[in-house]
Amino acid sequence: IEEIEVAPPKAKEVRIKILATGICRTDDHVIKGIMAAQYPVIVGHEATGVVESIGEGVTTVKPGDKVIPLFLPQCRECNACRNPDGNFCIESDITGRGVLSEGTTRFTCKGKPVYHFMGTSTFTEYTVVDEFSLAKIDAAAPPEKVCLIGCGFSTGYGAAIKTGKVTPGSICVVFGLGGVGLSVIMGCKSAGASRIIGIDLNKSKFEKAMAVGATECISPKDFTKPINEVLSEMTGDNVGFSFEVIGRLDTMVDALASCHMNYGTSVVVGAPPSANMLTYNPMLLFTGRTWKGC
Ligand code: NAD
Ligand code: ZN
Questions:
Q1: How confident is the model at residue 85 (pLDDT cuts 50, 70, 90)?
Q2: pTM exceeding 0.90
Q3: Which of 24, 154, 199 is the pocket-test mutation for ligand 1 (most atoms within 8 Å of CB)?
Q4: Same domain, 286 and 160
Q5: Do 138 and 182 belong together in one domain?
Q6: Is 65 buried (19+), middle (13-18) or exposed (0-12) by CB count in 10 A?
Q7: Residues 6+ apart with CB under 8 A from 163
Q8: Where in or outside the cell is it found (predicted)?
Q9: What is the pLDDT of residue 190?
Q10: Which atom of ligand 1 approaches the CA of 24 most closely?
Q11: Which of 129, 150, 171 is the last residue of a domain?
């Protein structure tokens, strides 16, 4: 734990006091260097806060408003913001520049700059974000619950509903039963999936997965056959949708191979290790599968 200085917000920026923050695996990826960032960095991107002060020209929030910081901002002007099928605003800091839109950081520690993570940085008592990286929420919302809307819940639920477009009666498979995987299960359930198969090496994850809507859970460790063959046998070769929610190259290909060779859709939700290339057999796509990111 370090004492830091958090500068006042510049024009079109907002300083917020963090009330609650979740921990997402992506924060750990940054700490381990798997995901690109500027160091030293303040991670954390799944939070609820309250506006403490606003910079010049801020119109959408005022001090006292309860807010959720957005690592995918909404500038409402770029192509992705204007397209109903898009949400990857060009203002988001996916390449890890570590600064706000204006080009500099608001954090210092012992006089040295400390960088922002994805325009949010929530593992701190106070943070500064761009105005377009905030959503105002209901003042009565419980901070420790709604902070999950900042990443894990929206990512997983949206992966099923918006990206995969899970259809009623379909069979879904979810690789990885962390906070994001559980949210994928909730999305598959609300889309009307008939079976939702959870996969994890850690069987202690199964109970919660079943509680939020999985119909069965398996561990690849219990089988000698490749997991796609196991799933094909379990389902009569009828997995409509598969989701990789771990962040490993091998399970991304396993998930792709597990959905139906012709009409199956596989969604990559897990964050790929930044320094790696993926090798896969293009026959997996040639037969008709759809492979999507999210
Ligand atoms: P988590 O660590 O809580 O959950 C991952 C789960 O995968 C764990 O339960 C673990 O036991 C399991 N697992 C690990 N290796 C496995 C293997 N080889 N086979 C089967 N199961 C395995 O992580 P999380 O917070 O739920 O995040 C999941 C992934 O999603 C991470 O890679 C994270 O960076 C990524 N993510 C992406 C987005 C996005 O916008 N696309 C948003 C949030 C998180
Ligand atoms: Zn996250």
A1: confident
A2: yes
A3: 24
A4: yes
A5: no
A6: middle
A7: 267, 292, 293, 294
A8: Cytoplasm
A9: 98
A10: 25
A11: 150
